[in-house]
UniProtKB/TrEMBL annotation:
Domain Protein kinase: 10-272
Protein name: non-specific serine/threonine protein kinase
Record key words, sorted: ATP-binding, Kinase, Nucleotide-binding, Serine/threonine-protein kinase, Transferase
Keyword Kinase in record: yes
PANTHER family according to UniProt: MITOGEN-ACTIVATED PROTEIN KINASE KINASE KINASE 20-RELATED, SERINE_THREONINE-PROTEIN KINASE NEKL-3
Gene3D superfamilies listed in its UniProt record: Phosphorylase Kinase, domain 1 (3.30.200.20), Transferase(Phosphotransferase) domain 1 (1.10.510.10)
PROSITE patterns according to UniProt: PROTEIN_KINASE_ATP, PROTEIN_KINASE_DOM
Length: 455
């Protein structure tokens, strides 16, 4: 399907993805000035009334449950060719599958995600519905004022619990669906979803899905140090005998929550390790992404300070940094929580010691850069407490860049720290930067800002 200009009043921006039954588009509600996702039935199913009924039933379930843990449906309409479409919440941070593919999650975060996924499935069960296709790619992530928010999505295979014994065809995704789902006409109940929750838990904890049933390798054998109660819970959820599984999603979720709240839970990794790539892999990317701009010389830092230009191709942004800082290069480091909540993607860090970038009591000098959608003020994207004390706030108007900076001249005795948010006229994006340097040099920060370029 070629990209349409609009669906009703919703102006189409780009395709988000497509599957066997539908295509999802990112669109803008110009009336309310808000992004939405629009799911449209695929053209080859336009005249299949049973598929149309399933599509509209998904919209009805999501609208009737109206839960914070499920994707919301705001509107439903029909195209001139008869295909229905639904207007839904736009999940701007991708899916749980995307998150898992970036690397092993800290245990606490994996359990948080699992708890919230379980809450969404509990809502469906309380509504009298079995999801039947729970998997990481069907759990979406959205920015919110209080952090990342989980949204269970894609109820294309969902059915009423009352109709469970009347299923005539197998449905679900191999690797995540229960053994009984693979039997046409199988008698299903909510414990089929519990099996899928167990499969998702296995992948969140270990980084890979479980084997075909019966699953015999406990997650703790792949990731040593897990609480025994977590191994027991996941293996019981993945039991071929559904009588051995937790009774429902709520029972499963309550046990996950209790494990997470236990005082002896292994400590989570720092947030900045979440998406960081191993050094050797990052080095390969560095060779592809760093652009040495002739090694410029400017009167910053010490006399004759050499500068180099580094480009992050995925975001189309280049930044000029002192060459002596460019020892570690990480092109996929996560933003701090405030920037992530504001919609920042992963950014790039060039520093003398990337491992201690978040530890402001250990000297590490460099520049972190990421790009956010829209024009945003500094207090909407920056954390207010990376260092002790109140920062010095100043405006920035350099070349075509406008914005503001917060300066901590002495950041916990390990040098100066500066947060910056700037934008250019006509460019609907904001560049957020952090600069750590041995001494408080606002002129060096300004020189770095002036070297910013979009391409």
């Amino acid at each position: 399907m070629s990209q349409p200009e609009a669906f009703g009043r919703y102006r189409v921006i780009r395709r988000l993805g497509s599957g066997s039954f539908a295509t999802v588009w990112l669109a803008q509600d110009d009336l309310l000035n808000y992004p939405v996702a629009i799911k449209v039935l695929a053209e080859n199913w336009a005249h299949q009334m049973d598929i149309q009924h399933r599509f509209l039933e998904e919209a009805r379930i999501l609208r009737q449950t109206d839960s914070t843990w499920l994707v919301a449906v705001h509107d439903v309409d029909v195209l001139p060719d008869g295909r229905p479409y639904m207007v839904m919440t736009y999940a701007d941070q991708g899916s749980v599958s995307d998150l898992v593919n970036r690397g092993q999650l800290p245990l606490d975060e994996a359990l948080r995600l699992l708890t919230e996924i379980g809450q969404g499935i509990t809502v469906l069960h309380n509504h009298g519905t079995i999801h039947r296709d729970i998997k990481p790619s069907n759990v979406l992530l959205q920015s919110s004022p209080v952090g990342q928010r989980v949204l269970v999505a894609d109820l294309g295979f969902a059915k009423s619990i009352d109709e469970a014994s009347g299923f005539t065809a197998a449905a679900g995704t191999p690797g995540y669906m229960s053994p009984e789902q693979s039997i046409p006409g199988g008698d299903l109940d909510v414990r089929s979803d519990v099996y899928s929750l167990g499969a998702v838990a296995y992948e969140l904890i270990t980084g890979r899905p479980p084997s075909r049933p019966p699953v015999r390798i406990a997650p703790g054998r792949i990731r040593p140090g897990l609480p025994p109660a977590l191994d027991d819970l996941i293996l019981s959820a993945l039991s071929v005998d559904r009588e051995s599984r937790p009774a429902d999603a709520k029972t499963f979720t309550d046990r996950v929550r209790a494990i997470r709240m236990a005082p002896d839970l292994p400590r989570a990794d720092p947030w900045w390790q979440r998406y960081r790539m191993p050094w050797r892999r990052a080095g390969v990317l560095a060779s592809a992404l760093i652009v040495l701009g002739g090694v410029l010389t400017a009167s910053v830092g010490t006399p004759g300070q050499s500068l180099t230009t580094v480009r992050l191709a995925s975001q189309g942004v280049s930044v000029t940094v002192p060459l002596v800082w460019a020892k570690d290069f990480h092109p996929t480091m996560a933003a701090r929580p405030a920037a992530t909540s504001a919609g920042a993607a992963t950014g790039m860090l060039v520093a003398t010691d990337a491992d201690h970038w978040d530890d402001t009591e250990v000297p590490s000098y460099g520049v972190y850069t990421t790009v956010l959608p829209g024009t945003r003020p500094l207090d909407g994207v920056a954390d207010t407490d990376p260092c002790e004390g109140t920062p010095q706030e100043r405006g920035i108007a350099l070349n075509d860049w406008e914005g503001s900076a917060w300066d901590w001249p002495d950041c916990n005795g390990s040098g100066a720290f500066t947060s910056v948010a700037v934008h250019t006229e006509g460019e609907p994006t904001t560049v957020y930067m952090e600069v750590r340097q041995p001494h408080h040099r606002p002129d060096l920060v300004d020189e770095i800002v002036k070297g910013l370029r979009f391409s």
